[in-house]
Amino acid sequence: MRTLFVKHTYQRHEAYRIITLIEEQEDGRIRVRKRPQTSAAEGHVQAIFDNYRRIESMDSPLKAPKVFMENGQLVSEYIEGVSFEQTISEAIQRGVQADVIAAFEDYYQFIKALPSVKQNPSSDSKFATFFSNCDAEFDCLQVGLIDLIPENIIIDSRDKQHYHIDCEWLIDAPIPVDFVMFRAIVVIYHKYHRTLPGLLDLRSVLAHFSLIPHQDLFNTWESEFSERIHESCDIYKNNYQVNSPSLSQWKDKKPHVLNSSMFYSGDGNFREDKRVSRDLYLKNTFAEGRFSLETPTSVSHLRWDPCEDYCVLVRDIHLEYLSGEDLIEASPRMTTNAIEVDQGVYLFLSNDPQFLFAFSEPLILDCVRIRAAIQVLSYSDIMYSGDYLKTWRFGLAAFLKDLQKDTFRLRQSIENNQRILKEYDELIVGNAVKISTLENNERSLKAIANNYMHEYQRKNEQIRLITRSPLYRIFEPLRFIKRQIFSIIRPLGAMRTIELIPMSGVLAEAPGVFLSENEDPQLLLIRKAKKGLYYFRWNGKASRATLLQIYPVVQGETTELDAIRLGSLETEAEQKERFVYLRHNADFLRLDLGDKSGVESAINDIKYTRLGAFASVRVGLAIISQSTGYKKWRLFMHFVKLILTGRKNEAKQQFVETFYSFGDGINLKMSAEEAYANYIHLHEQSEAEVKAQRIVSRDLSHRPLISVFAPINIYDSNLIREMIQSVLAQSYPKWELCIVGAQDMPENLQSLIEDFADLESRIRMDFTMPTASYSGLLNRALAMAEGEFVISLRTFDLLAPWALFELASHINDVPTADFVYTDEDRMGLDGQTRSHPKFKPQWSPDFLLSNNYIGNAYLARTDRMRDVGGFRDIFETDCQYDMILRLTETTENIFHIPSVIYHSRFEQLPIDMRDKIRLEDASVRMLVIRDHLERIGRKGDVQYDDKRGVFDIDYAIQGEPLISLVIPNYEHIADLQKCIDSILHLTTYRHYEIVIIENNSTSKELFAYYEHLKKDNRVRVIKWSNPFNYSAINNFGVAQAQGEYIVLLNNDTEVIAPDWLQKMLGFAQRDDVGAVGARLLYSDQTIQHAGVIIGFCGVAGHAFAHMPSTEVGYMNRAVAAQNVSAVTAACLMMKKSLFEKINGFEEQLAVAFNDIDLCLKIREQGYRIVYAPKAELYHHESLSRGTDDTDEKRSRFASEVKYFKKRWHRVLKEGDPYYSPHLDLVHETFRISGE
Q: 203, 261, 596, 849 - which has most CB atoms within 10 Å?
């Protein structure tokens, strides 16, 4: 908490002495606190509280701030707005009499509009106890608001209501409106006594409001009222600076305007003609002023006199020095005639306060701006606070001690300076001769330069005449064609040399050699840069490894999100090159040399060229050809086909990756945080789009009411405020916010929510719950909800501004939707940085049981949520997960919107609360999953893998069906033997057979091994004599298999998990599952297969390939059981009957993609494919056939690719449902797409 303002009332009677503070809370809210200064004043504070309550109950346009008592102190809300006094003050500053009268008139009309009655106030007995008798009738305020002066009435900036912000003095008797007006005018004239009397005579203002006849009576009443409050009426009179009879009764008032002066000097001597004076207006002790010099002046010293004729306390001084509109950085040495009572707090006990500022070097200034907190001290402040004088005495002693030390140091410094001056004299004499020689050389060089300039101008004129000649213009089209042809034939030939020019924070030590002087060294790279692809080449080094970044600058603006990594400089000189894509035209490109000071960088021969569209394609094809070995014309035809078949983005992605990773880019891979920041910058809705959504929302054919649940079980005002504001910012208007909380919610939080509800009718509240049980709060919100759909927000969650619009739009597109979930991310501690995006797959029930990937970011039909019985308290800490499972059990209308509309602020919670949430999730979730399995009629053992962070379900095996392991083999004995031995010796499931399909091997040793295997009645060897065709071989093998279930297994696999068959069979026996794939590892313990991604590298590829097996992968997907589009047939289990139903493998696919084709046919029949990571084997890969090293094999592969793309064109176009469109199709590790 920070105190912004303090006011003491020492001059009052003890019964009325209070302290007023304005405080800023940790959550940024501002409150006003009044506390008794003495025990005798405790009753007065309670009376003030009663005054606020009484004004609240008035039926009038005047309101009172919300107040409450806290430990005997009154606390009220702080009202932001404009007071009547501020309006009058602005009129005074304008210097127009009519404006001042009009401002007073506005105030007068307002108080006259308050409830009043015409009577003689003296007829009221309570009035008579305060004031002398009178015999006239007045319009009297029914409630005695005697202190309703202009500074106490503020027009709130939010609701435009008038608030009485200081209700300290309220007399339970009628008070004449004219008396209140008289007091208001006198107060204003006292505060602005330096300027207002010269502009407008006090008597003329009193006459305007017909107050002259009652002036003496009102003065008497004011004196009587003052005597009741203050200890004396006389000891403060001499403080008044306005010679007005009407002011003689006022007590110890302090000025609100100070006459302040700024002296400036170029030599340290201050004169009156070098002085600028102006009035400083105090607002809650804060003052701000601008001292403008007549002309720009060289200034070495400044002296600021805050005021004249007052003792003051000054703190928080801040000066700004300007030359034109430019702000000049300077840190002058400051001295003062004050006592520094605390760091940065200065007490002046003389009436001539001064601050002196001395600059190390003269500055050219035309203006000085100053801000400071200034408290004018009255005699009472000093009389009743001995601390000031005590501080002065100790401060003076310390000052004298420091002065002695400074004197000793100065003497030493003078002696040293004298020695240095003597050395300088000797240097000056020695350098005089050198200067003379250099001047002669300079004259000679100027003569040579003039000759060269004359020759340059002559040549330039000749070129100008040639380029303007008719013949030159006739051949311009030919030259243009030549340039285009040249750019295609030699796209990198027309390189331009760059001359790097220092901009900021960098010193040019020599041509191409730069020293960074701060942490943001900047060079000018290129002027007027058009958008497009650029190629840079340079040679350089640095004293330490330095990152080079390009910033496109448009109209003087650029951001970190616009930064483009060019490359790096190492400690040894290297030739480097890099492609850079500029998305927009730029006024110029800025090159930043790292972020370290004191680094010396040498960049030699830096060149660039901009590539047009044809040149970009030409270069891209050349690079891809060089890295893959494919001929350029074949690549060209490949990309043309991609574009013609509607897969332009896939072609574009390959070019993007090629250019990005070329040259120095290979070492500049974006971090996940940088990639996500780039995604946000490029793809998320702009403010203009959000505004457009507000209009589009009106035209939706169906505009459902969406109820947003906000159960408050974390008592943090910042989190609550920002959560509510995120709903208020929605571009879709038809929503209601149901906020529910417990009875013991702190009063300040209830008030905060009530304030929002007062301003927004769509916010509904209920704070009647006996406890803050999360499930109970959600159920209360569900009972309140009137919407067709509901979405819930935890206290630490936020909605993106377009969230409800996207959900409502989806409901219009798919009216049958019952359950819709979205992507989400996390918000950092700073409330700005976003990270850890969850780009989720489409509906994957097995993944949901392994890992709750849906979380809180879902929308559901309200009636369905009520039908399933609401939220259950038996699963209190995981009632949302339980609700998701019960909702999705009863409908198939489940959809996913691939858009990040939900932000979790989990990181902003206290560490102990975060740990508690994590622990409770893990301990309760197993119970939730078991309950779900029981409801849907499945038996299984649920366990939590705390190392991998996922839940495993071992489904109960029904019976002991025979499983046939079908293994094709050709000429491999060692690998086959390793495979068979691992099956026979490790596998714990006993009812299986091994069917080996022998395909044209000739090895005698291999056939001898076959004979050995036949001794085991579980093993059969069957011959296939036709040419190798993986699909045909397996179709033949399955036909020979006797098992109810088949496992298609490669001969180069090796069992790791003994229960691998049980893990796969548990899934395969389910009615909804068509095929199950295993987790396969290379022998170096990296992943070979963890499911298949459709569309990867044009066709399909393995997820997480080559990632270390110890890593869990994106969203734990490398280790979680889940639904996928396909699995590899290197180890695949399915029912034999289903294999036959879909006619097995497609034999046109002899080698490649036959297993992907098989899985897609299974999915066509409505079955799911499951990846079972606990079924783990080694796969040494592609040993059951040779390599594609002949033209025939390469031609066959190309034909298989063609067939697959034609057969599954729609699937490839729509993309893999279990792989987010925001992830790229080049890297196996689920990286965010570069485009």
A: 849
